[in-house]
Specification:
Length: 474
């Protein structure tokens, strides 16, 4: 079916189309006027994404889309609607109870019935590019709609505050118990450290250990020096006990022995002179020999005294070395014992420090959660409060009329086409060609119509010629 045929059908059945369109528009208008009017009150809140100063160091701000979606779900939740019912005390109203019994036959609870009713009539629209959330409520009474919208806003703010405070209170109780346990562990560690220090007489471990270690180093130096002295005295004693005892430094440096050796040298020179001059049998020669023998005896006696002194000195040096070695060993054992004690004390001290750090961390979290549990400020603030609307939001008469015109036009076109299909008639040349399958060679004008001629008849002739079949080639 061409568009021209469709227009011809509408032109032929225009009365039916107009009646259907008018009936549709009239019905829509009547229904729109008879429907009960409902009013929509709107309030808005703004959500602050910035963390508060208390929890800024512990928690980061979530992304705005996630927060906005979460807040919208919170507003739509049963908890917020139930808080609205309880804040307004609607379940105690006799009229509400009567209406509930009429609609539900006493099944369920009044609060649950009101919650379902409020959730059906409440809309939440979060903003995509800002932190503003719009809350609207629809009711037949404009003041009731405004009151419910504001009640939802207030219930939402209280609920968000509870969602922050209740977990903080639970965490505060948890950290309170942990803080007591950590404090007991810290006190036990400190008591253990104090008992250990008292048992080992430790007051300043590091200073005392430094003093004792310095003392050990000093004894080590003294021992090394005494070992060198004792080794030297031992070598001199060995030399003194040998046949070369008269060549040791103590003998060579002794003034008495030096003087006796000088006298002995003079006496031996005198003996040589007297022996050469008087002979060995002369009494003076015998006297000089006796004098030489006495000097040699005295030299030997003095040498023996000096070498015995070297032995005594060696014994003293050995004794001092032994004493210093014993002191060194005792000091080393003492330092090693102090080191072991210090290592054990360091372990206990670290236990105390770890217990202190754990207690400080738990106590900081306890203070933080305690402050959060006592907060009275929500991160949601009222942007605009709902007021009673002056015009109803439903039904929208003009919108309904426009829709009825569109729907009525579609309905009228459909009905007209249906009637035409049931009673098909020839309304144009195309209908003749389609029905007979033969070309049209002429058209009779309507009675009273002007004759076809001149310029006015030219389009008709072209149309008739277009319907004729093309001649076949020979």
């Amino acid at each position: 079916m061409s568009f021209g045929q469709f227009l011809s059908i509408l032109r032929a059945r225009w009365l039916v189309a107009v009646l259907l369109l008018g009936l549709t528009v009239a019905t829509t208008l009547v229904v729109s006027l008879l429907l009960p009017k409902s009013y929509r009150a709107t309030a808005s809140v703004v959500v602050d994404f910035k963390p508060d100063p208390i929890s800024a160091a512990f928690y980061g701000a979530a992304t705005p889309p996630a927060v906005m979606a979460t807040q919208a779900d919170v507003i739509k939740s049963e908890r917020v609607a139930l808080r609205v019912v309880r804040n307004l005390k609607l379940s105690e109203s006799p009229q509400v109870r009567t209406q509930w019994e009429q609609e539900t036959k006493g099944e369920g609870t009044v609060e649950q019935w009101l919650v379902d009713l409020f959730q059906r009539n409440m809309d939440v629209l979060p903003s995509r590019e800002s932190s503003v959330i719009t809350i609207s409520y629809k009711a037949q009474d404009p003041r009731f709609a405004a009151a419910l919208a504001n009640a939802f806003v207030q219930a939402y703010i209280e609920t968000t505050l509870e969602l922050r405070v209740d977990p903080a209170r639970q965490y505060a109780g948890f950290f309170d118990v942990r803080a007591k346990e950590a404090r007991e562990a810290l006190e036990k560690s400190q008591s253990r450290l104090s008992a250990f220090q008292k048992e080992n007489s430790i007051f300043a471990t590091d200073e005392r250990f430094d003093v004792e270690n310095s003392r050990l180093n000093e004894l080590s130096s003294q021992l090394v020096q005494l070992q060198a002295v004792a080794s030297d005295s031992t070598s001199r004693q060995v030399q003194a006990n040998s046949t070369q005892g008269d060549r040791i430094q103590e003998v060579l440096g002794n003034p008495v022995i030096g003087a006796l050796k000088a006298d002995l040298s003079r006496a031996e020179g005198q003996l040589q002179g007297l022996s050469a001059r008087l002979g060995d049998a002369h009494p003076q020669v015998g006297e000089v020999k006796a004098n030489i023998a006495e000097l040699r005896r005295r030299v030997d006696a003095e040498t023996a005294k000096v070498t015995s002194g070297v032995g005594v000195s060696n014994s003293i040096n050995r004794q001092r070395e032994g004493q210093t070695r014993a002191q060194f060993e005792a000091q080393r054992a003492k330092v090693l014992r102090m080191k072991a004690v210090r290592d054990e004390g360091t372990v206990i001290q670290r236990d105390v420090e770890n217990a202190q750090r754990a207690y400080d961390a738990i106590f900081a979290r306890l203070n933080q959660t305690s402050l959060e549990s006592q907060t009275t400020q929500s991160n949601v603030n009222v942007l605009t409060q709902a007021t009673a609307p002056l015009e109803h939001a439903f039904p929208k008469v003009w919108l309904n009329l426009l829709l009825s015109v569109f729907v009525g036009a579609l309905l009228a076109a459909g009905v007209v086409l249906g009637l035409e299909l049931r009673d098909r008639r020839v309304r144009a040349l195309d209908d003749v060609v389609a029905a007979l399958g033969l070309p049209v060679i002429g058209v009779l004008p309507r009675p009273g119509a002007k004759r076809l001629g001149g310029r006015a008849a030219q389009p008709m002739r072209q149309r008739l010629l277009a319907t004729l079949p093309e001649p076949k080639e020979a």
